[in-house]
Write a structure and sequence with these properties.
single chain, 25% strand, globular
Length: 99
């Protein structure tokens, strides 16, 4: 079933993804990186098909948080029929880094 919601990546989320992938290239195998990308794609599809599936953030109530892994959380905002991927957050960071 096609979703009416459109996904938009913020510049910050793109930078976060690039940073994560750079880190993974130094620490993980190509297979593990591809598995990460697949999990990310599936998680974004879940968000797109059911934007309210994941809870609101306790720290930033305008954002929802979708835990991708024990290492990474996706923060996103839903406005009308648009979903903005705001931040791909490394769970080792301080939550105050999110704008």
């Amino acid at each position: 079933m096609a979703s009416d919601f459109k996904i938009f990546w913020t510049e910050e989320a793109i930078i976060n993804l690039e940073d994560i992938l750079d880190y993974l290239r130094h620490k993980w195998t190509k297979r593990e990186i591809n598995n990460f990308k697949l999990r990310l794609s599936r998680q974004i599809a879940l968000i797109q098909n059911n934007p309210k599936l994941f809870p609101l953030s306790d720290y930033y109530p305008r954002l929802r948080k979708a835990v991708l892994s024990k290492h990474t959380t996706i923060f996103y905002e839903v406005k009308d029929f648009k979903i903005y991927l705001v931040y791909l957050f490394s769970n080792k960071q301080n939550i105050d880094k999110i704008k």
